[in-house]
Amino acid sequence: MVGKCSRLVAVAVVALFGVGACALESQPDQAGADVQPVSAGQGATGASASPDPAAPSTAAPTPSSSPPKAESSPTPATTTKPPKPKKTTKPGCPQGESQREVETALAKLGSFGEVTVDGKQSDADCAAIKKFQQRYGISPAAGRAGPTTADVALRLAATDTSKCKTGSGTTFCVDLTHQTTWAMRGGKVVLKPTITRTGMPGYATPTGAYSVQNKALKEWSNPYEVWLPYWQRFNGGIGFHETTTYIHTKSIGSHGCVNLLPSDARAFYDLGKVGNRVYVFGRRPGT
């Protein structure tokens, strides 16, 4: 029995010193936090400290009077976020194949807004082109500088109002070459040049000086069976009137009359009087 007891005591002593040897190592607790080692000044037992001979061999370590303070998290350094790059927006209108030609013409006309002659679409160009298209009935008025827009803009920009031979009163001027028309009084332009469509091949509008012979808000055309709004006759059966078809269809034309957009037909009708001078000059291409 004595031998067995002595062996048990020896096992217990080895077990106790085995625990003490790891007491200075940081061990994770059940909650996952680090348990701080106890300092020698606090009476810790283990391999690094000499046991007190008066103390029983089974004495437990003296706990700390207060739990160790948790380390505070370091304050992150304040960093300045880099500015977000500015988003670049595309112009509101697509760019057409005649961008530079239209910009050049609109810059010369000067009444549709600021444009930059660089062949590149911008928001300002877009707005000016849309305004121009709306004014002259170009469809769609989407701001794209296509062939029709370029054709109309270049014709208007090339019109020379000084070539019209005016009288003492109001004169309606018709430029067959550029397919434009305007009104003058006393040598000054009172209705700016606008577009027209005159007689097609075989029905070319004759050149010369004429005068307004009669007017009617709506005239019936016997040979062609169609109403002619804002009619002003100046040469036989030829006169000014609102177009009855899309005026920008160049493959067709009138039977000699001077076709006008609705807004222009009304403006010419309001200004015109019987006896006003009409001067037609030039030649429509293809006639």
From TrEMBL:
Gene Ontology MF terms in the entry: peptidoglycan L,D-transpeptidase activity; transferase activity
UniProt keywords (A-Z) are: Cell shape, Cell wall biogenesis/degradation, Peptidoglycan synthesis, Signal, Transferase
Is this entry keyworded Transferase?
yes
| Annotated CDD domains | YkuD_like (cd16913)
Q: Name one GO biological process term.
A: cell wall organization
Active-site residues are 241, 257
Tell me where on the tree of life, at the top rank, the source sits: Bacteria
Protein name as annotated: L,D-TPase catalytic domain-containing protein
Q: Quick one: signal sequence residues?
A: 1-23
- This protein's species is Phytohabitans flavus
Query: Low complexity bias located where?
Result: 39-81
Cellular component, GO annotation: extracellular region
Instruction: Determine if Cell wall biogenesis/degradation is one of this entry's keywords.
Output: yes
Q: Name one Pfam family in it.
A: YkuD
